[in-house]
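Consider the tokenized backbone below.
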């Protein structure tokens, strides 16, 4: 299976939304689907025979999770190439998924409901993956129901002064595949009342003008590359998490660029951390080598 979409499946009820999203996206891309369930710790030579028996018996529910997940995918998308693997005791889930997704075009995991109270409950696995993934990470919320939800036809991409080409490319590519429009969003606070002063004229841009210019420069040329994608953009007064959360309620996907500080100590930025739990649609975190994390 070349360049599959990899899905981390933990609790099937919680991760069903991610499973269905990944299956539908794999069908759109003509890609295979690789399901991974991580369970337990590896047995070692010091374990007693009774402990080993208990370990093997305990593995049965884990194997059942992946079996049921594969069956659900085949029922939803009958012609899709799908494999399922139960990885026992190979380390923490994030590490296992990162290794498994080394050749993946997408890595997909489940997320929690969109309530601020859930921020502390979002698994550390999602944070670790978002900070270290080398392919786009999709965090999808709970499944809204058995039937497919009608697409909103909109992809929202967050833009700032460190906007990565990889994130913008992903947003336009996804929109083009799905017949959606792209809305580029840049949020700024009222404290930024005045932009930079022009040294030649001595005049100062208003904050709105300065941030509008930033967006226009970031999006220059994308309309020519993707003529089938309608583009809208504009700066928004307010905090980035609050603005993106509101706009995500009418979107199919929220795309954020991942900026990395260092390989040894990857750090997940506050906006991304907040949106992983606070967005009202699936969130794509798109890495780009050499760029610090958002």
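A designed sequence for it:
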């Amino acid at each position: 299976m070349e360049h599959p979409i990899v899905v981390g499946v933990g609790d099937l009820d919680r991760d069903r939304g991610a499973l269905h999203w990944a299956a539908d996206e794999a069908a759109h891309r003509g890609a295979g689907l690789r399901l991974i369930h991580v369970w337990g710790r590896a047995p070692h030579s010091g374990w007693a025979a009774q402990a080993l028996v208990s370990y093997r018996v305990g593995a049965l529910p884990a194997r059942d999770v992946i079996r049921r997940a594969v069956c659900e995918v085949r029922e939803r998308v009958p012609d899709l190439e799908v494999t399922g693997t139960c990885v026992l005791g190979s380390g923490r889930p994030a590490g296992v998924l990162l290794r498994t997704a080394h050749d993946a075009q997408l890595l997909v995991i489940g997320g929690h409901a969109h309530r601020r109270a859930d921020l502390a409950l979002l698994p550390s696995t999602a944070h670790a993956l978002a900070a270290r993934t080398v392919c786009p990470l999709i965090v999808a919320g709970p499944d809204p129901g058995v039937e497919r939800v009608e697409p909103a036809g909109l992809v929202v991409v967050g833009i700032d002064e460190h906007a990565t080409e990889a994130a913008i490319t992903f947003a336009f590519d996804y929109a083009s595949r799905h017949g959606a429009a792209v809305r580029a969003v840049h949020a700024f606070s009222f404290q930024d009342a005045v932009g930079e002063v022009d040294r030649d004229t001595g005049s100062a841009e208003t904050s709105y003008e300065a941030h509008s210019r930033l967006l226009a420069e970031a999006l220059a040329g994308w309309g020519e590359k993707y003529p089938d994608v309608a583009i809208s953009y504009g700066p928004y007064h307010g905090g980035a998490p609050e603005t993106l959360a509101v706009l995500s309620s009418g979107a199919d996907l929220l795309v954020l660029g991942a900026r990395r500080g260092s390989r040894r100590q990857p750090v997940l930025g506050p906006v991304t951390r907040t949106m992983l739990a606070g967005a009202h649609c699936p969130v794509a975190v798109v890495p780009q080598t050499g760029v610090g994390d958002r």
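Residues 114-122, 290-294 have pLDDT under 50 and may be disordered.
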